[in-house]
Every structure is written in C-alpha cells, then in structure tokens.
Amino acid sequence: xxxxxxxxxxxxxxxFRTGVSLHSHTLHxxxxxxxxxxxxxxxxxxxxxxxxxxxxxxxxxxxxxDLSRAYWTPPLAxxxxxxxxxxxIQGRFGLNALVSLTDHDNIDAGMTxxxxxxxxxxxxxxxxxxxxxxxxxHLGVHNLPGDRARRAMDEFAEFTANPxxxxxxxxxxxxxxxxxxxxxxxxxxxxxxxxGHKEHVAFAAEFCGRFGEWIHALELNGLRPMKENRETMQxxxxxxxxxxxxxxxxxxxxxxxxxxxxxxxxxxxxxxxxAGMSEVLFTEHYFEAFPSRILQNVQDVMADxxxxxxxxxxxxxxxxYVGDDGEARALRSLWKHTPPAIQIFETGLRALRxxxxxxxxxxxxxxxxxx
Length: 371
Fold this sequence. Notes:
- By secondary structure, this protein is α/β, with parallel strands linked by helices.
- The chain has helices spanning 34-41, 44-61, 78-93, 108-113, 149-161, 165-176, 197-211, 226-239, 266-274, 290-302, 331-334, 340-351, 355-370; strands at residues 2-6, 18-22, 31-32, 70-72, 96-100, 124-132, 135-144, 182-186, 217-221, 243-246, 257-261, 278-282, 319-322, 328-330.
- The protein has two domains: 2-29 and 81-286, TIM Barrel (Alpha-Beta Barrel), CATH 3.20.20.140; 31-72 and 292-370, no CATH class.
- It has a five-stranded mixed sheet, with helices on both faces.
C-alpha cells in the first residue's frame, strides 16, 4: 500500500498521528562546489569571466582548475536542523515529529544529539555514497543500532573508497538484517555524475535488480523536479518497491516531502515501510517555481549566519579547499587573499545576485528541469 498526497488537495492530516522528515543535511555534510558552478558557467555573462579566470589559473599554477578540491558545508548545526524540521511538522501540520538527519557519509549529527536525554531515541542515519559502474548512487541508511553505528560507518567509508559488488552485497545484507534499520535509494533517477540520463536510469534499474532484496524503498525527492520524481515512481513500480519521502534539505527551507503515519516511534515507522505501507506528502512549497527554490538554496549558502553552531558566520568560513598537502582548510582562515580558483567561483556566485542574471539562472534551471 502506497499513497501520494498533495498538501491542501482534500487531505485531512488529522487522520495521521506523526509526520516523518527524512533526508536532511547539517554542517557535517561536505557538498561539492561543482553543482552551483555548473549552472553559473552556462550563463553567458558569467561564463566569459570564468573562462578567463580558468585560463589565468592554469597559466599561473601549471595545472587546470580542479573544483574537486573545494567543498562547502550547509549552515545548520544538528540541533538547528532538527528544530527546523520538527517545527514544520508540529506547527504547520499539528503532528508529532520524527526526524532523521542524513549527512553525506557522516553520522555525527545523530551521534552527538543522542547524548542529550531528549534525543536518546533519535535515529542515527547517513547518506552513503555508493559508486556503481560508471555512476554512483546515494543510499539513505536510517536508524543504525547505536552500539555499532561507528563500526558500520567505518565499513561504509572503506567500501566507498574501494568499491566492489561482492562487498556491497555483504554490507547491505548485514545492514538490512537489523529489523529497525531502513535502507532507501535516494533520488535514484538523478544523473549526478552526468554520464547521460538514460544510461544512469538504466544503471539504477540494474542496481535495484542486483541489490533490491536489501533496499526497502525508493525516494521521492523534495529538491528534484517532478518529472524526475515521476520516473522514480515508474522505477519503483517496475522493481516492486514502495515510495518514500526525502526532502534533501541543505539550506533553510524545511523538507518539501514528508511521510505521514500513525506510528509512535521510528522503529514502528520502519516496520510499516518494510511491509510496503507508505503515505508520502508533497507540501505546498514543493510546487513553488523550481528555479526559485534552487536559487534560494544558493543564497542560503552565501548568506551570513550569526548563530552558526561552529561560529562559521561568513560563507568563506564554510567553504574549504584541500591544499597540495591534503589538508582541508577554511578559506577565511587560510589565505589573506582568496586564491584564484575560489575567486573564479565566487565571481559566479555573486553575479547571480544581479536581478538580470537571476532571471537567466531561473530560465536555465527551468530548461534543464524540463529536459
């Protein structure tokens, strides 16, 4: 049994006891700069400046610009992220809240909050990066047993660094053997590595065929366009898996997809999903203009955050660059003058604040979402 609801479309949320927020990021996640840079470089006025900067960087440093060395972290600490998600569920919908924070290849958010008595039952979760063939997938692993979560994280990290299908099968079987743990294939139809959409979706179907025994649901993602989520619906039907929500929040907008349930605990919710019962809600703000939502996320990244959990107020405190020595350092603390590689990127981001370029950005993202 799987149902999809749209907020305000005749839905009476009073039929449910609990709202569940899944797939939400905190300052423990490392996010590649390439996502924003890719869009910026496709806008002609910005592209000219970036191409010139790239050329100068290569001439000065003797190598091409490598944005894989740079990453940013979302602005919210674990407690702030939990509060944002819980407030939407409790205040907007009047339901009890269950929140699972899933940082990229990191369980620190859940582990650190669980030391507080009020969060003793908080699920320890992550978004695990799984290389596969010419692409990669992200698995939401929710509610790891607290006493072996660190060991499991070490095993996941070792696999990501040295992938192999036999080892993946072992890890998934081991993880799914825990009855209260939930394994979700996040945004399965997103061609994040840009190998080609059709090829990626074909790999997603193959991945489900090989490892679907230990995958409990496919995600309807709150930050991906509806066209892609419809493809996920078709894939879920083809492979016989329920659909589940996953907001994928990185900024200050709460998750745009939620699950509705009468479960009183996360363990009970996992039992429902594993039995194939899922009620997914698309909130009203999911249907706001997709380009505007993406742009707002970019602006959240660039904004000052006076109450940042680590005191990283400026965006340059939250962007890191890996030097030739392999160490990652915040831009603001590392250089008196921003290095050319980051100047190029910053130029593109700041240009997107110009009203005319905002319109161009929105048109670009709209076109990509429709393609």
